[in-house]
Inverse folding.
């Protein structure tokens, strides 16, 4: 029992360190990008989304190299479930989310397509280096898509991202050492937090007799999704629904294309039995559920947010 308490403490410490690491990385990277003249909407759709997905990337990479590939896969799938069902569900219950940004409308089907692409890649029971490279190519295509399509956004959408970046970062015309230090400190904290989470999660799963996929879907997934939750809640409170929804959709794309792409390129991942019929189907279900919810006037109402939350809980119970 004392060992279990220490493992839980290590897991909890890892989640806390990981959260602040992601926060520092996002803040430093956003400030640096703004200093270098990158458009606020591009920063919001790429830098922020990638930064909030950094915990998943670190945890999955550490888990895969530490001999816990099931934890890595459970983390990615669980995080995507939490992003849609838990984060968008809770956020829209607090404040209905009305989406105006054209790029967010276009991103939603891309998220579904990228998620579905895992099915044929993993069908042979392995995410190989070749599969990882395919996912990374999809990521590059997505980034090019964002850069090419943000220019035709309405002025009010560009202003929304401008206001969000001004409120979230201190913009300047020169590169400051504190911004670089934030990026370094955030990256180091992510690695430390990721290591603590993986070590704690593996030991807790072993002590409780549950699978690594399950603990990856639960504690680890929710813990690594905290940066997305914080970003979306702040955006919703500021009545910036496009940022709240765009962050979640962008993070889900990064989780699949970047996290699984990088992890499997560095170290091929064996696909556990039942992943495609279980976790991946659940993610596809919530992703498809989000499309008609969004397209009903491009507004996620409170009752629709409740539906997403119920869908998340249902999928969660089904998987457990």
């Amino acid at each position: 029992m004392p060992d279990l308490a220490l493992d839980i403490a290590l897991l909890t410490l890892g989640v806390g360190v990981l959260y602040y690491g992601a926060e520092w990385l996002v803040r430093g990277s956003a400030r640096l990008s703004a200093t270098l003249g990158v458009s606020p909407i591009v920063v919001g759709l790429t830098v922020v989304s990638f930064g909030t997905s950094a915990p998943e990337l670190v945890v999955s990479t550490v888990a895969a190299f530490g001999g816990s590939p099931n934890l890595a896969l459970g983390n990615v799938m669980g995080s995507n479930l939490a992003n849609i069902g838990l984060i968008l569900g809770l956020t829209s219950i607090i404040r209905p989310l009305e989406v105006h940004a054209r790029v967010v409308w276009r991103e939603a089907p891309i998220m579904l397509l990228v998620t579905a692409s895992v099915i044929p890649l993993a069908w042979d029971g392995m995410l190989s280096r070749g599969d990882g490279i395919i996912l990374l190519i999809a990521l590059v295509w997505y980034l090019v898509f964002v850069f090419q399509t943000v220019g035709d956004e309405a002025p009010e959408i560009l202003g929304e991202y401008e206001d969000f970046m001004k409120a979230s970062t201190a913009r300047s015309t020169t590169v400051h050492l504190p911004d670089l230090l934030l990026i370094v400190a955030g990256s180091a904290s992510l690695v430390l937090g990721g290591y603590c989470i993986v070590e704690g999660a593996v030991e807790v799963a072993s002590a409780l007799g549950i699978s690594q996929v399950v603990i990856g879907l639960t504690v680890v997934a929710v813990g690594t999704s905290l940066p997305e939750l914080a970003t979306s809640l702040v955006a919703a409170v500021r009545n910036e629904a496009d940022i709240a929804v765009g962050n979640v959709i962008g993070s889900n794309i990064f989780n699949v294309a970047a996290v699984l792409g990088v992890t499997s390129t560095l170290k091929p991942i064996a696909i556990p039995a039942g992943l495609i019929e279980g976790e991946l189907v659940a993610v596809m279900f919530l992703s498809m559920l989000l499309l008609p919810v969004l397209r009903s006037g491009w507004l996620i109402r409170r009752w629709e947010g409740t539906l997403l939350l119920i869908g998340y809980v249902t999928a969660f119970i089904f998987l457990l």
User: Anything to note?
Assistant: The longest strand covers residues 97-98.
